[in-house]
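User: Can you write out an input/output pair for a complex, sequences first and structure second?

Assistant: Here is one pair. Inputs:
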Amino acid sequence: MKAKIIPIVVLIAMGFFLFNSCEDSTYRIYTGNSPVYMSYDNLRKAVKVEQNAELENPARSISRTIIYSLWKNLEGYMFMITVILHLLLERHL
Amino acid sequence: MNLPGVVDISISRYIMYADSFVDLVVLDVQDINNIHEAGRIKDILPYTVPPADNDYPLAFVDEDKGVVIDWEVEKIKEKVNQDRNPYPIFWLKADFAAMSNSSGNSSGVSGGGVGVGGSMARFGIKGNVLYVLDQNTLKVFDITNKTSPVKHNDLYPGWGVETMYLTENTMFLGTTTGMVIFDISIPLSPQTRKFFSHARSCDPVIVDDTLAYITLRTGTTCGGSTNTLSVVNVKNINSPSLVATYSMTNPHGLGKDGDLLFICDGNAGLKIYDASDPKTITNHLVYTYPNINTYDVIPLGNVLVLIGDDGLYQYDYSNVLSIRLISSILTED
């Protein structure tokens, strides 16, 4: 019995190797743009604040900002003062 | 700040929305010294690759490996039966010029309460809704919870959508073949109103009250052979009509403040026109700054924000005949 099984197993194995060919692959070699990857993990870890960038001529822009904000604040106060003065004058005249 | 792959941003109060390759990132910018990521929607934006050396073919891109941050020209051994890149979308470097906020306090072109954006913006905010453009899709996000945007739906306004401009109740999309007009009076449900076609080209667009200003230019991935400024009457968004077309050198972004029209005209520099009469704009050139070569401009009060390849510039234009550089932030590369 054992003697009959061995040739059958050998035949099946031979058939497997003979009739099961490798997948044909063709490669080509060329000069091209090869992608440089960043993994998704690194992409999602990469958000961070780096050193501050230098602003050219910052004094002027800061002073402009301060003057603008002061002016905007003053506008509000001036309106309030005008209203109060108006009410006071109305009461006294 | 290091944020890989960012092309566009938009700000609603202290929350900034930005793209980072395939992700939409939410940044808390309330404390300028402690800007941090407050949220992120992963894989919501299309896979894009950076521009490559056009003299060489692109190798196979394996999206599972991550995002492509650069290309190296080298010898490549590649399986022939591998799928090629069927659908590469390139960053348009010129299109990152989107600066917007929701303060609505500018004297430049903007609708009340609508973010002030550059003419080449691809992000826009209207109330609690964030709009994001990517080539052929308009993505609509509900940002009622500022740090957790919820994607509401996708709209398909057509192929080659490049720029977005929002007014109070209307959205103007510049596409490579025309301008699409949406009614956004219900912000979460934009309704298509009209398509105004033009020659195939890239077309930043701004809208001032009843007039839309569109620049068309050559030399881009959009194709086309036209370098013009077109003025379109959009008083009735259901029937826009062409008012005038002017020849330009290579117009990119544009901005408007009152009667002043600013155009980044390629190598011809920054041009300032008196546009009080839309039918004779080029007859009223106020001044040209040939040395200012930028691709988008935002007039904010008396401060002109210009964005170029090498950084961001602010100019004082209280005297348009002699605009002054206030400051600049130069990019590292």
